[in-house]
Amino acid sequence: MKAQNIDEVVDGLAGIVREATRAGDRIGYFAALYRQVTVEVRTAIHSGLFDDGARMNRFDTAFGNRYFDAHDAWHRNRTGPRCWREGFGLLENADTVIVQHLLLGVNAHINLDLSVAAARTSPGGAIHSLRRDLLLINDILGRVVLAVQDSVGALSPLLSLLDRVGARTDEQILDFSIRQSRQEAWYNAVLLAGQTEEEREATIDRLDVRAAVLARLVARPSGLVRPALELIRSTESDDVPAVITHLDHAMAGPSVP
């Protein structure tokens, strides 16, 4: 699908969540998180919190369409950006844990898509006027992440094992990934905004390769993290639709229609 505005992004994500819930598809895990972030961004636009609400509507639409394009390409013929293919390719693996799917979505959407959407929304020198509004999204993400952390913790009672093997808990993983990745994404957006189309395509390809490498580390961890994840998985629910519904209600907002 191609969204024309943020309302259509929210509707498109709600449709993916709804279909994933019906089919028991783990693609609904990240889609539920992303839907709630987008709803919060839309509320902030309507509340006049951004310097330029119309511009943020355009940005969020471009951002959302990056996800829809990757989603559709994967379902059509298993193509699309490398980093998204790494995440989507793990969806049918029943040995994965919830937080892995969330991280894989966050990785691809922020480490690749955010920079591209920002640069295309505000090309050239205009990119610098976008900085404050993008930083405001960090606050929105923080609120959603806090709510999702509680959901993940309730669904993964042994997730704290990751701390004991030198990894990170759900809170630290999500917070670190979002904050660190968004900071890097801003620098990449500035780079992309000043490039020619040919240069931009080469940079996007490099960003995709890097994000795909990070995705493999999340999808196939080594050392003590692997057996810890196996134990964590043994305590998580096998009811994928119930997990999606739980995550999708993390903000205690309206249910998916």
Structural write-up:
- This protein is mostly helical and 257 residues long.
- The protein has one domain.
- Helices cover 74% and strands 0% of the residues.
- The protein is built from eleven helices and no strands.
- The longest helix has 25 residues, at 53-77.
- The radius of gyration is 17 Å and the shape is globular.
- The two termini are 18 Å apart.
- Residues 163-176 and 253-257 have low confidence and may be disordered.
- InterPro entries: DUF5995.
- Biggest sheet layout: none
Mean pLDDT: 87
Uncertain ranges: 163-176, 253-257
Shape: globular
Helix-strand pattern: HHHHHHHHHHH
Determine the N-to-C terminus distance.
18 Å
Query: Into which percentage range does the β-strand content fall?
Result: under 5%
Number of helices: 11
Number of domains: 1
| Helix-residue proportion | over 70%
Instruction: Say how many strands there are.
Output: 0
By secondary-structure content and strand pairing, the structural class works out as mainly alpha
- Alpha-carbon Rg, integer: 17 Å
Pfam family, one: DUF5995
InterPro entries: DUF5995
